């Protein structure tokens, strides 16, 4: 028994031509069903009668393309890519080969060669899988802050933001508040005016807006600070950040006593004491 590799279009032709050979369908109706001319249908029917399903396969399947580049050119291009452009993408590597080595290779051809050699991974292959974070164990251990800007009151008032405090362990809504806009100061005010009946008087950690806002226990009370994640994100010059990194950590300085409810601007953000 011999297996024949065929495409879906060729399999469709086999089904129709079987009906023609069995007398259940005419050549004219077969041509209309396949979307070809009557003379082409007659040629296919003749090939099917003589060679069977194998006669309907494309004659170029399995053969090398007439426009394929030579193996010597491929070896030369890949040797240059391995030696000089191993960390380049296919587009830039093709430009370098054309400008500096006079090798005209399209970027898609070079992409296939680099993928076969293991020098290039597709975007799907480069995608990293992030493991889901486990929920915290206790109520109030981690409270997440998020805001949803919407026209909550329709045309009766201006658009505003609904500020939501969500407990990570239980998914419980700890507090809801309408504010003009989501900002650090609106978070400060919501934390300062929270009801005393809520069990999270001093959470271990609070996050908001993709970890831009972080809270934690403080020797003088609960402090909410805007965490600075990278110098470029806050518009600071990269050279200044590198200079501070070379200088090393600053010596600890004595902190003045922070009165309750006072907001303090510090080097690493804005803090407010709530208790």
Automatic annotation (TrEMBL):
Region (Disordered): 230-268
Lineage, uppermost ranks: Bacteria, Pseudomonadati, Pseudomonadota, Alphaproteobacteria, Hyphomicrobiales
UniProt superkingdom: Bacteria
Segments of skewed composition (Low complexity): 237-248
Residue spans of biased composition, Pro residues class: 249-259
Name this protein carries in UniProt: Transposase
């Amino acid at each position: 028994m011999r297996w024949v590799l065929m495409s879906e279009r060729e399999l469709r032709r086999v089904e129709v031509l079987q009906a023609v050979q069995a007398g259940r369908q005419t050549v004219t109706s077969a041509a209309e069903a396949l979307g070809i001319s009557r003379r082409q249908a007659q040629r296919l029917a003749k090939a099917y009668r003589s060679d069977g399903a194998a006669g309907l396969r494309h004659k170029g399947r399995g053969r090398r393309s007439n426009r394929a580049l030579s193996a010597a050119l491929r070896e030369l291009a890949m040797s240059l890519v391995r030696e000089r452009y191993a960390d380049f993408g296919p587009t830039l590597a093709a430009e370098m080969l054309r400008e500096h080595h006079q090798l005209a290779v399209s970027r898609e051809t070079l992409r296939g060669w680099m993928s076969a050699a293991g020098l290039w991974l597709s975007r799907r292959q480069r995608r990293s899988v992030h493991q889901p974070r486990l929920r915290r164990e206790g109520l109030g251990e981690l409270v997440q802050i998020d805001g949803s800007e919407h026209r909550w009151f329709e045309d009766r008032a201006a658009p505003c933001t609904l500020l939501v405090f969500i407990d990570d362990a239980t998914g419980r809504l700890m507090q809801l508040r309408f504010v003009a806009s989501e900002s650090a100061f609106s978070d400060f005010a919501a934390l300062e005016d929270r009801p005393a009946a809520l069990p999270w008087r001093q959470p271990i950690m609070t996050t908001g807006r993709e970890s831009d806002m972080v809270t934690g226990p403080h020797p003088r009370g609960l402090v909410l600070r805007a965490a600075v994640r990278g110098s470029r994100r806050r518009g600071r010059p990269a050279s200044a950040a590198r200079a501070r990194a070379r200088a090393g950590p600053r010596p600890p300085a004595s902190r003045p006593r922070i009165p309750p409810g006072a907001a303090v601007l510090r080097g690493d953000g804005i803090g407010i004491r709530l208790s």
